[in-house]
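Annotated sample (chain length 368).
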Amino acid sequence: MFLDYYRLREQPFGVTPDPRFLYFSPAHREALASLFYGIDAGRGFLALIAEPGMGKTTLLFQLLKRLKGSVRSAFLFQTQCDSHELLRYLLDALGLDSRGQDLVQMHAQLNEFLYREAVAGRRVAIFIDEAQNLSDTVLETVRLLTDFEAADRKLLQIVLAGQPELGQRLMRPGLAQLRQRISVAVGLERLPAAETFRYVNHRLQVAGYDGAELFTPAALTLIAERSEGIPRNINNICFNAMSLGCAMGCKKIEAKVVEEALHDLSLESLVQKTKMAPAVTPSPNGVARTYYSWMKAHLFGRKAYLNAVPAAQARRAPLPRRRISVPQAPREHPARSRSQSARSPLHFPACNPRRPPKSNPMLTLPAP
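Output written by the structure step:
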């Protein structure tokens, strides 16, 4: 962590919507004042529309902080739901038990709660974040919530916060009644370069930094250019630049460190793009060369192999066997006795079983 290295009490560029770190640019200051006045005056329906990463949730938390003690509030951020689930989320956020109740019962319970709060002199405000995800049916249910009113004031204040898609949907003819009930609509603008410099220094001061300028002017100029003035982008770039600067031992963040941090943040540097090669129709000459290569590698090579096998066998062929003439023993006359045949010159004595017989060189044939 770079907190000790740069002598910081806490993370200056975190991802949570901490209202202490909210930088009051002219657009943010005006939006906060308009929303606060609309709720205080009981205007009923208000809208905050801005691009992603502009600090809408942080601004709403700052507004809740200022309304604390005077307004009973509920913050809803789960907008992927139907009408029944939305009412259940709302009652749970207000501390009411909604288990086993249908829409009619939940409406009646909410009406009783709003009446009790009005008698006690407290206002009730609902903040719905990421409202662009609500379906048209759920938006109509939200519109009907503003029907909870007394003769002289609205019993429920509703703030819709969302991305520009929310504004586009509110301009549809089917949501004309909801659009007509929105009495305060504010937006947030991107920070120019000068505001970006002050934004970075503001967050560093809130985090406890009291040294010299941590980011050089060239680094701040690069941050303002590449972040496009969106606070969330500024936070990500500064966090990575400070982490990299701490690893490199840099007491001051220069433009080259920011450039390296931007490279690390780029998804293009992590994902290798594979380009598909265009399909090329082979020419007749190319087909011929390919076919000849195959013939040469398979057919011609096989023919050469078949021709080489007989030659190799011929070189390793065994010598012809020589015929050895062995004198034939004369036929024994039947009249001869066994003793005479035993004295025949071709009579071989019995071999000694304990000693192998001696080989006769005249009878040895060459090995194949």
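Annotation: The chain has a mean pLDDT of 81.
Annotation: The chain has 13 helices and five strands.
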